[in-house]
Amino acid sequence: MIQACRENRYNGRTLVKVGAINFSIDRKNGLIYCDIPKVASTFWKRVLQIVSGKRQKNDVFDIPAWAAHAGLLETFQNKGFDEIHELLSISTKFMFVREPYSRLFSGYIDKIFTPRPAYMGTRIKIKNFGMRGNETKVTPDCALDITFTDFVVYVVGTLEENTDRNAHFVPMYDMCRPCEVQFDIIGKMETFNEDATYIFKKKGFPASIQLDDQRNDLDSITDIVDSTFAEKEGMEKCLPFGKALEYVWKKAVIRGILSKEESMPKRFIDQSNFTREDFKKAMMDAYHRSSKNPDRVNNRKEALVEAMRSVPKDVLQKYQKLFRPDFEIFGYDMEEPQIFQVPPPKPFYFV
Question: In this structure, are residues 254 and 303 in contact, taking their beta carbons and an 8 Å threshold?
Fold first, then answer.
């Protein structure tokens, strides 16, 4: 990493203006965490809320996902350079990164693929961005047909023009400035359990702060269901709720939570007299059946390959150029063999 920073001169910004809100401070434990959206930021903010004493909880899964981002943690925002420098010098600084293609894909699935009302404006921007220069273009009402290529074209274009930058879709390097901040620990999503456990032990976190893959999956289902039903009214302005639930169910399949063999029960399409708990139970039951099928964990990789192989080469090259610092600094392969050197998959997830 140091060599990549030095050779490519990835520097030149100050933390007072760039990424200040991404740095969370835990003075009690002498920690500074730089959070990057789509890289386990919800988990780490839950952890810091507990160990810093901001929430009187023992279990990270007792904190709803939305509450992790409630702004309880102190950040670098509104702090001067001298104070920031002092905090950096006395704290253990850590961040987590993720393979850039996987992070890009995760942003698409979570924010764009599913018909979330909160991102309807972004979907419309993506649609219109792809139609620029077309005098007959019209602004779509809900823009539910955004392909992964449409999304990548938009991400590339907004980064090239430095407009409409969204933290979920910008380079990790831009968020945390690793060539300027000497991080003590840079963990990776690909080795998350080992890296997180190392931090737990190093800082002497209580035994109640622990990792549990099954509970994480169940927590994800709860978050998916709760957020979907909370946004039901907005979704129904764009499509029947049963159709929206199909997107949500497929999202759980793509993330490897549910097996590909698990189809959403038809009653959620044909009927309307069901509750949030009915749908949650159906998804939980499907999860417990899926847990017996170890192949489900490959869904995310298969869907990623299907999506990435659909992107035109010229668009992909522009993305690679813009995200080169992420690949080089954090040691990822721009020509990732498991994505680009496998036979093109038969379409399944995006048909």
Answer: yes
Domain identity same for 219 and 269: yes
pLDDT of residue 46: 96
Mean pLDDT score of the chain, rounded to an integer?
Answer: 92
Q: 185 and 199, same structural domain?
A: yes
Nearest residue to 219 via CA among 56, 40, 26: 40
* Structure-block tokens of residue 315: 């668009």
Length of the chain: 351
Task: Say if residue 26's pLDDT is above 60.
Answer: yes
User: How many whole angstroms separate alpha carbon 77 and alpha carbon 82?
Assistant: 13
Radius of gyration of the chain (CA): 21
Q: How confident is the model at residue 18 (pLDDT cuts 50, 70, 90)?
A: low
* Token pair 């997107």 in the structure block, residue: 247
Chain centroid to Cα 232, Å, comes to 22
What pLDDT is stored for residue 268 in this prediction?
97
Is the predicted pLDDT of residue 13 greater than 60, yes or no?
no
Give domain status of residue 114, yes or no: no
As beta bridge partners, residue 26 has 31
* Residues 80 and 220 grouped into a single domain: no
Q: What is the residue range of 77's domain?
A: 2-98+173-211
Does pTM top 0.85 for this prediction? yes
Residue 251 counted as domain residue: yes
The total of structural domains in the chain comes to 2
Measured CA to CA, the distance from residue 6 to residue 11 in angstroms comes to 9
CA torsion through residues 230, 260, 188, 154, sign: negative
Dist CA 103 CA 82 (whole Å): 33
**Residues 267 and 198 both lie in one domain:** no
Q: Quick one: average pLDDT of 85-93? A: 96
